[in-house]
Design brief:
about 375 residues, mainly alpha, Serine Threonine Protein Phosphatase 5, Tetratricopeptide repeat, about 65% helix, about 0% strand, elongated, Fanconi anemia group F protein, FANCF_C_sf, nucleus, DNA repair, DNA damage
Length: about 375
């Protein structure tokens, strides 16, 4: 067992070196031995995936490496943080070497030959490796898009192909980091919030919350011991938003009203907090007698038009969200004095505006005026 743990330590060092200029000294034979070592550890992953004591020992050693300050003199090795990572350690090594310009031409050529041997019969391992490389290359490209193409405007964000790609990437990554420990996805999201363009990141989260559930991969179906929370990545996003009030306030302020309505309809646990924010924003407005409109005291206050548009969008949602919104407005109106004339309570004015808008819409559609409610 100790020999196996030492092998794991040495490969962790090897993986860390693979991203440095030291690979300039690697010849083709070194590259071939490094890949053999990685494939050996992948074999260990498959063989002992259901062997509790050995798996736990390897998991513990990897966790210690990940948390150790300045491990191996170079810091913890990204990507090799848990037992599951051993299942694609050859992919991690290959991708690092392919991206490292310090690798010599002869060694790079040998690496490509090892990865893509050309026509002929390939075993299952080779096919899996090539598919994994393609998936990781797609992920790296999506990260590049997330960082440098975040300012493209599209009124239908949930249908934007770039946004959907980024959302799928985010959900896939949340599934992967969640296999190590329950708290890692939240830390991962917080790190993205600090590093990426925030407005674009919020849009990606919204689109991710509207994606259908991700189907499990064959490897995950064969390993029922993998942690899985209800709802997978989308539930992780919901919990993270609800646990970070400032982020959720920015989420609700930055996103279009229609998109937020779709998100809160899909995830009902978000709607009470969203309604609470709208209520807080409304209470900050006061009625300007000269202008005849509701205005804010400070520049960052939500204007009347935006507040009305957001409530109007929510009132166009199907029940039960629409009913909750109308109940909340009626409650605020009652608490504010239950006035029926405009200019005294913003909640009265919002209800009047919403009812007038609904009445005009029914007239345009040629329908009966119906009840005075929205």
């Amino acid at each position: 067992m100790e020999s196996l743990l030492q092998h794991l330590d040495r490969f962790s060092e090897l993986l860390a070196v693979s991203s440095t200029t030291h690979v300039s000294t690697w010849d083709p034979a070194t590259v071939r031995r490094a890949l053999q070592w990685a494939r050996y550890l992948r074999h260990i992953h498959r063989r002992f995936g259901r062997h509790g004591p050995i798996r736990m020992a390897l998991e513990r050693r990897l966790h210690n490496q990940w948390r150790q300050e300045g491990g191996f003199g170079r810091g913890p090795v990204p990507g090799l943080a848990n037992f599951q990572a051993l299942g694609h350690c050859d992919v991690l090594l290959s991708l690092r070497l392919l991206e490292n310009r310090a690798l010599g031409d002869a060694s790079r050529y040998h690496l490509v030959q090892q990865l893509f041997p050309g026509p002929g019969v390939r075993d299952a391992d080779e096919e899996t490796l090539q598919e994994s490389l393609a998936r990781l290359a797609r992920r790296r490209s999506a990260v590049h898009l997330l960082r440098f193409n975040g300012y493209r405007e599209n009124p239908n964000l949930q249908e934007d192909s770039l946004m959907k790609t980024q959302a799928e990437l985010l959900l896939e990554r949340l599934q992967e980091v969640g296999k190590a420990e329950a708290e890692r996805p939240a830390r991962f999201l917080s790190s993205l919030w600090e590093r990426l363009p925030q407005n674009n990141f919020l849009k990606v989260i919204a689109v991710a919350l509207l994606q259908p559930p991700v189907s499990p991969r064959p490897q995950e179906e064969l390993e029922p011991s993998i942690h899985k929370s209800p709802g997978e990545g989308s539930q992780v996003l919901v919990h993270w938003l609800l646990g970070n009030s400032e982020v959720f306030a920015a989420f609700c302020r930055a996103l279009p009203a229609g998109l937020l309505t779709l998100v809160t309809s899909r995830h009902p646990s978000l709607s009470p907090v969203y309604l609470g924010l709208l209520t807080d924003w409304g209470q900050r407005l006061h009625y300007d007698l000269q202008k005849g409109i509701w205005v804010g005291t400070e520049s960052q206050d939500v204007p009347w038009e935006e507040l009305h548009n957001r409530f109007q969008s929510l009132c166009q949602a199907p029940p039960p969200l629409k009913d909750k919104v109308l109940t909340a407005l009626e409650t605020c109106k009652a608490q504010d004095g239950d006035f029926e004339v405009p200019g005294l309570s913003i909640w009265t004015d919002l209800l009047l505006a919403l009812r007038n808008g609904a009445f005009r819409e029914r007239q345009v559609l040629g329908l009966s005026p119906g009840l005075s409610s929205v």
